[in-house]
Amino acid sequence: MGKSIIVKDVTFQYSEEIILKRLGFKIQEKTFISIIGPNGSGKSTLLKMIARNLEPCKGNIILGERDLREYTAKGLAQQMAVVHQGTEVAYNFTVEDIVLMGRHPHLHRFQREGSKDIAIVKEVMKLTNTWHLKERPINEISGGERQRVIIARALAQEPKVILLDEPTSALDIHHQIEILDLLRRLNQEKDVTIVAVLHDLNLAARYSKEVLLLYEGNMITMGSTEEVITVNHLKKAYNMEMIVDRNIHTGYLQVTPISVKK
Ligand SMILES: Nc1ncnc2c1ncn2[C@@H]1O[C@H](COP(=O)(O)OP(=O)(O)OP(=O)(O)O)[C@@H](O)[C@H]1O
Ligand SMILES: [Mg+2]
Predict the structure, then answer these.
(1) Closest residue (by CA) to atom 24 of ligand 1?
(2) Which residues are found with C-beta within 5 Å of the ion, ligand 2?
(3) What are the two backbone dihedrals, phi and then psi, of residue 108, each rounded to the nearest 5 degrees?
(4) Has residue 1 got a pLDDT over 60?
(5) 86 Cβ closer than 6 Å to some ligand 1 atom
(6) How many domains in the chain?
(7) Is 45 in the pocket of ligand 1 (CB under 6 A)?
(8) Does residue 175 sit within a domain?
């Protein structure tokens, strides 16, 4: 399990302005990497390119051994699941049907879901604490519940890579930790590569093996959590004074904002 991702000299622009500037890095297979950076720095754009929702204007992206462009839609969905920022769902299926859609990349054309698919769906819904919602219409549940359902659908895909854009932004503290613990378990026990955009630097520090820091479309740095989450790097990106130390109880790195420079 696990797949590496190589981003090779990638440039992207929506219109005239260049949003991502000649980015190049490798995401190792089986890693847990967080992408951090201020609003508008290009995190979602980068994630969308890795998910092949957007195509680089220049450069290319390799997943495993092959260029992303070479995968069929179904082939890509067998390798990679994506949880985008904002979880609006256009159609009003039940929660269980939405999660069941995660199994489609593994079915033949016209093949109905079988007992194995149903069992996987039940398992991931239990893991994400969404099983009790299964009969509810997807657009009639809370934002945080919906976020967990979309994560359940991604897990049902049994991918080698999961891309998540702010997966915990709508979750209460209990569910934040529950979902991130779950992602960590998938990473450690099933070797799934996790790539998550996270705003909460303390959560990024606590859960990631590696961190990539973006600022105005450039990579300021990438490396182990300890290497990236430093006072100097954070100051460059966020223009703020911060304290970076370790929590005396947990030993995790912690970031405390002090003041915004004027
Ligand atoms: N569809 C679009 N068309 C034009 N410009 C866009 C589009 N989406 C994003 N942008 C611009 O591209 C830049 C990067 O946006 P992106 O959404 O990647 O940032 P982000 O780092 O994910 O920010 P946030 O933390 O707010 O989610 C921003 O300047 C944004 O205004
Ligand atoms: Mg974003």
Answers:
(1) 39
(2) 43-44, 85
(3) -75, 165
(4) no
(5) no
(6) 1
(7) yes
(8) yes
